[in-house]
Each structure stands twice: as C-alpha cells, then as structure tokens.
From TrEMBL:
GO terms for molecular function: DNA binding. This is Two-component signal transduction. GO terms for biological process: regulation of DNA-templated transcription. Residues 22-77 form the PAS domain.
Length: 231
C-alpha cells in the first residue's frame, strides 16, 4: 500500500457513506464499531448495538452463522462475501479480516442494492431467511408470490405447482390482502427487493433480531402504481 494511503482513517470514510453499512466485529462477537447506515439496514437503534455482543441483539441462528463467517475470514485471512435475506430484503455483506496487535476482527460492509461487486472473493449464501413483512404469508402463498413475481402468469403458476388456476387466483387475492398491494407490478417489486428465488423457499425461516424492531419501513405498503394488472 502506498505510504500516503496508510494514513487514511477508513472507518471515518465509511461512517459518512449513506448506502453501505459498516460493522466491525471481534472474534468473540463483540460489536466494536458501526455506522448509521448499518443501523438503518438492520433496523436497530443505536443503544441496541453500543458496547454489545451479537448475542445480545440477534437470534441464535443469525449469530451462529454470522460468527462462522467472521471466524473463517480471521482464520484464513481471506475475505468472504455472503448474500442473505434480512427483513424481507436481499443484503450482500463482504467480510474482510483485520488484525491489530493480538486482536482479530472482521470488517463487514453491507449493501442493500443487491449488486454483488466483482472480485476474486469466496461467496456463500445464508441458510436462513428473515422475511420481515413477508412473514405473514404461508409457505404456499410465498411460493405463489415468488413465481408470480418472476413474471409467470396464473395458468403458468398453476401448471408449475399442479394446482388449479382458481386455487392460484385465491392465493393471489389473499397475498394482495395480506400485503396491501393492488397490482402485479407491485408483487414483482416486492420479489425483486427481497431477491427471492425458488431455491430460497426451502430455507429455514427465522427472525434475525431478538426483540421487536422497525423492520424495513420502506418495504410495505408498496406505493400505489398505475397499473391495469390488478391482484
């Protein structure tokens, strides 16, 4: 690294970045540093993270998987990129190892836009899914939502699921009622925001945060859009 770059305080740089969540976690799960974007992305308050351990804030499943990634980057001294659906939105987190004397940390950069940066970094996917506002849907309704959101028509979904078109229409109506949406375009937007694909459906559902929290206030209800394709 060039000498003049070593003097840059990269934590301060990312503290000012509104669209990238920054979290620094120790190998024991201690939350050492975070920026405001991380608070917004994870839907938690400042007092929830300050001087806390991941175990104090997040569920056992979330912490166990998260810490396995932290430990891997510390042990291998190589970065890792993970995709995970959190509060009904697809997040991409990049884990980078950092060492300070005898202390070892993982610097975690999290993006909401779903864009996976290019680079020679090992990639993995969470085995859990936090649906957030979409958790009101039954497994079958979620399956119908994903297929409709990918552009399939009701007859096409009925063939894929071996159900009658009338049954799929009933599911579609119930989905619209539960989520407060009124058009196919809105369903498509929800699926795109969550990054949901059919291969995500078997993943174990869970709530990532221990206590009730402000989960993706910008996700639901969807803004009304002019569309002739109503749910």
């Amino acid at each position: 690294m060039r000498t003049e770059l070593k003097s840059i305080d990269w934590l301060k740089v990312f503290d000012q970045e509104p669209d990238v969540g920054l979290t620094v976690v120790g190998e024991n799960g201690q939350i050492i540093h975070y920026n405001h974007a991380a608070l917004r992305l994870f839907g938690v308050d400042d007092e929830d993270l300050l001087d806390k351990n991941l175990h104090d804030v997040f569920s056992e499943e979330y912490v166990r998987e998260r810490m396995s990634w932290v430990q891997e980057v510390i042990d291998t001294n190589k970065p890792l990129r993970a995709t995970h659906i959190y509060c009904g939105r697809m997040l991409v987190s990049s884990f980078y190892p950092h060492h300070d004397d005898d202390q070892h940390f993982a610097v975690i950069l999290t993006r909401l836009d779903g864009v996976i940066p290019e680079g020679n970094i090992k990639e993995t996917q969470s085995q859990f899914i936090d649906l957030g506002p979409l958790s009101v849907l039954s497994p079958r309704e979620l399956e119908v939502l994903v297929l409709l959101g990918q552009g399939n028509s009701v007859p096409e979904v009925s063939r894929l699921l071996y159900r009658s078109p009338r049954t799929i229409e009933r599911h579609k109506t119930e989905i619209g009622h539960k989520l407060g949406v009124s058009s196919i375009s809105q369903l498509t937007r929800l699926v795109a925001q969550a990054g949901l694909r059919p291969e995500h459906l078997p993943l174990q559902r869970f709530d990532a945060v221990r206590k009730p929290h402000d989960c993706t206030p910008d996700l639901l209800p969807v803004n009304t859009e002019a569309s002739s394709s109503t749910v």
